[in-house]
């Protein structure tokens, strides 16, 4: 037990690595603030376009969405970061992360929002058009608010996944929480920094997990 | 050389592709094996925890909820790193393959428990009462009446979650598992050419596109009629 505490919950090492971890935490938050809005914007765009009636627009977009839902985000990230420079395109670590998240999480948000948009009764946009609203007004004031409300738990769940996913940026040396923890671990030869990072992730995300679990239970129970 | 030829030379070089295709195929085998093991263990443990939770023992349930919350909140890569780089410090060393397996299994277990449990609680109370009224004990009521209905409710969300977690096998490359991504990265390092990575990406597409489409189909097929 004492060995375990020494290796995983070493107070001295936790204090010594706190500076590195603090920088990592800030970078993780920065990453989340960058990737969530990017992905959501892309998702709204894809979802709105892929629910149009024109098949030459819908099918390619569905294929695009499925493609990026099928590729693991880490594979996409490594491809952008390590393979694209051979073709003369060097996005750098942050650029690769931004583009990978735009494509991957954009596809996920699109799939969720598409289901939401399809759940809005057709009469809603028709009525709004009949009342004289313009097309973009119908989307922004009538369809999207209802669509978002219908799939809110899925949207929150996906956002949680996106924040968790920012940890893969450590693989391309973005100094976020996990990367910093591993740095601290290799300097100190002790697993405490990783344990501390895990605790930070947990404290950061637990409230959302609880909220989500309530929303999901309520939704499934509501189907009785 | 046109732009397209230069692109093909780099990203789809036939010589490099021929040389490293067997390596990627071996990686595909590892990915599939890892995925199957994760799915089997994760879903079984998740269902077991959900059933255990149905007994309604308060202290046990708090424990289950806490464990589930922990593995839903932690990023899978953090768990893998913790197991692979951390556990040896406690005298427990695991290969990259088994570390990845354990981490993803725990994550799938947590999500599956949550979904199965939601399914169990969605079965109307009257089903329980009717089962008991027919003279069935608690356990037969659970396994013969409640669970079949609960699992049906759980299938669509479960399929999508399982696919998402299975894609996490690519994280194994971080701890030196030579699954598809790991094999592709070593191929790229040996050959100095990104073709192996293109092949790796193609392998994932071939593996997961059918699964993603099937997932969408199952979601509509099993959808609860409202």
TrEMBL record, chain A:
Residue limits of the ABC transmembrane type-1 domain?
Answer: 25-213
Reading the lineage from the top rank, the first entry is Bacteria
Q: Membrane topology for this entry?
A: Multi-pass membrane protein
Q: Give TM regions.
A: 20-49, 61-85, 187-209
Alphabetized InterPro entries for the sequence = AA_ABC_transptr_permease_3TM, ArtM/GltK/GlnP/TcyL/YhdX-like, MetI-like
Where does this one sit in the cell? Answer: Cell inner membrane; Cell membrane
What keywords tag this UniProt record? Amino-acid transport, Cell membrane, Membrane, Transmembrane, Transmembrane helix, Transport
* NCBIfam families assigned to the protein according to its UniProt record, in alphabetical order: HEQRo_perm_3TM
Q: Which family does it belong to?
A: Belongs to the binding-protein-dependent transport system permease family. HisMQ subfamily.
* Name of the protein described by the UniProt record: Amino acid ABC transporter permease
From TrEMBL, chain B:
The residues that cross the membrane are: 20-52, 59-85, 91-112, 170-191, 197-218
Q: Where in the cell is it found?
A: Cell inner membrane; Cell membrane
Enumerate the spans annotated as ABC transmembrane type-1 domain: 28-214
**Topology versus the membrane:** Multi-pass membrane protein
List keywords of the entry alphabetically: Amino-acid transport, Cell membrane, Membrane, Transmembrane, Transmembrane helix, Transport
Report the sequence similarity comment from the record: Belongs to the binding-protein-dependent transport system permease family. HisMQ subfamily.
Protein name from the UniProt record: Amino acid ABC transporter permease
